[in-house]
């Protein structure tokens, strides 16, 4: 998938589930449920046990766009990209992640909060700037303020996003958002509460 088409697909998705679980089985299960609901873009964090293997498994499905999150360094990024990740996410600015992403034709999302950090992320090669933690940094109002001074930058707020406020973030100018919480509630997954997860997915897809 060409790089620009990938960014377009992320924008069209509007909401990217951030899958962060203590169990690989739970991660696989929640992705399956959300896939049934119609969601086809996922961020699998490196905090999932053996995350690269799961990325490889899910990336084998041509209908899915799978990325890696909380990527700690360039070596981990290379592992994820080799496994099939199409975008790399870190909640901080790490310039070493740009080269492997560029070589693989993958998108890079580096994290920031302040305008100074946004500039640093862009200088480090970030294609999209992840704003984390978005809710405690000012929520949609903070995104609106950043968009006003960086009108050409794609922002992806993450942290505290829910079906109740996702619309406000998009209206404030976010290109798309990352959402864990209601979409990836590990307690509900462990309890087999598929209905609750599917209901949350239904709210954001409505």
Task: Return the CATH topology.
Answer: TIM Barrel
Protein structure class: alpha/beta
How would you sum up the major sheet?
Answer: 4 strands, parallel
Number of strands: 8
CATH level-two architecture: Alpha-Beta Barrel
* Uncertain residue ranges: none
The proportion of residues forming helix, as a percent range, comes to 40-55%
Order of helices and strands: HEHEHEHEHEHEHEHEHH
Mean pLDDT: 96
Strand content: 15-25%
**CATH homology-level superfamily:** Aldolase class I
Keywords:
206 residues, four-stranded parallel sheet, 17% strand, globular, TIM Barrel, alpha/beta
Write the layout of secondary structure elements.
Layout: H1 3-13, E1 15-19, H2 24-37, E2 41-45, H3 51-59, E3 65-69, H4 74-83, E4 87-90, H5 98-104, E5 107-112, H6 115-123, E6 128-131, H7 139-149, E7 155-157, H8 166-171, E8 177-179, H9 186-190, H10 194-205
Parallel strand pairs: 1-2, 1-8, 2-3, 4-5, 5-6, 6-7
